[in-house]
Amino acid sequence: MLVLLAGIFVVHIATVIMLFVSTIANVWMVGTSSLGTVSAGLWLLCNNTCEQLPVSTSDEASLKAVQAFMILSIIFSVIALVMFIVQLFTLEKGKRFYMTGAIMLVCWLCVLIGVSIYTARFTGKVPLSTSSHHGYCFILAWICFCFSFIISILYLVLRKK
Predict the structure, then answer these.
(1) Which has the closest alpha carbon to 5: 100, 123, 79?
(2) Alpha-carbon torsion angle 106, 137, 61, 45, nearest 10
């Protein structure tokens, strides 16, 4: 049981770190242009230098929603990690990790909504670019989606042990 808890704890910390990286770094979409490689994230458009991401007025609300949901997912994931540590030492058997699992499900839902909006609205749209593909931040966000779901289910199952 201790090895399982340690493994879940390590995966949870890895998920938090990957959520931070995928939200902060500006490599959600990568494209090529005459000036070189262009990468676009949630915040900036980077070529040789980084500048504010140019977004049309019709896509601005979608981008703000993606930013908000990714930040919320980080917040909920960190709260769930703190609650896991607190519940590990304070609650009795049978009542552990119920809230942690519920909060991680909310984190999972935030990642799902944020990445789905980005996929629907911004795939293939890199300004000043001729061809584009998804960057590592986009892939990390989908990996975090899977990890947060698995972790939340494990927390809900572990509450009975």
Answers:
(1) 100
(2) 160
Please tell me whether residue 29 adopts helix, strand or coil conformation: strand
**Tokens (6 digits) for 145:** 């989606």
- For the stretch 51-103, pLDDT in tens is 887 788 888 899 999 999 999 999 999 999 999 888 888 866 656 788 888 99
Q: With CA atoms as reference, report the closest residue to 94 among 157, 9, 12, 2.
A: 157
Centroid of chain to Cα 4: 23
DSSP string, 61-125: HHHHHHHHHHHHHHHHHHHHHHHHHHHHHHSPTTSTTHHHHHHHHHHHHHHHHHHHHHHHHHTT-
In a domain, 116, yes or no: yes
The tally of domains found in the chain comes to: 1
User: What domain range is 121 assigned to?
Assistant: 1-29+59-125+136-160
List CB contacts of 61: < 8 A, sequence separation 6 or more: none
Reported pTM: 0.88
